[in-house]
Amino acid sequence: MVEKVPIDGLCGKTDEENLGFTYAELDRYIREGVIEDQEKKAKIDRLHKMNLFKLELMPVFEPEL
């Protein structure tokens, strides 16, 4: 199980094929800031920027009393 490549179960491709980079490349970029392929770096940065909203707290209504 540890070595099995994750798949989405829908299109028959692995997650890495869908993303366009491997988890090893992503891990190295996150931990060390090193990535050889600038296109992959740009894609990782773009995907990260698109998903930043998931790290924000949900807005809540605060009534004025």
Summarize the structure.
The chain is mostly helical and about 60 residues long.
Task: Describe this entry's structure for a reader.
The structure is a single chain. The chain is mainly α and 65 residues long. It has one domain (1-52). Helix content is 43%, strand content 0%. The protein has three helices and no strands. It is extended and about 55 Å long. The model has no long low-confidence stretch (mean pLDDT 91).
Name a few traits of the molecule.
3 helices; 43% helix; mainly alpha; single chain; extended; 65 residues
- Radius of gyration in whole Å, from Cα? 17 Å
Q: Could you tell me the strand content as a percent range?
A: under 5%
Order of helices and strands: HHH
Arithmetic mean of pLDDT: 91
Flag low-confidence runs: none
- Beta-strand segment tally: 0
| Shape, per Cα inertia axes | extended
The total count of helices amounts to 3
Sheet/helix structural class: mainly alpha
Major β-sheet annotation: none
Domain module tally: 1
Helix coverage percent: 40-55%
Ends apart, CA distance between termini:
55 Å
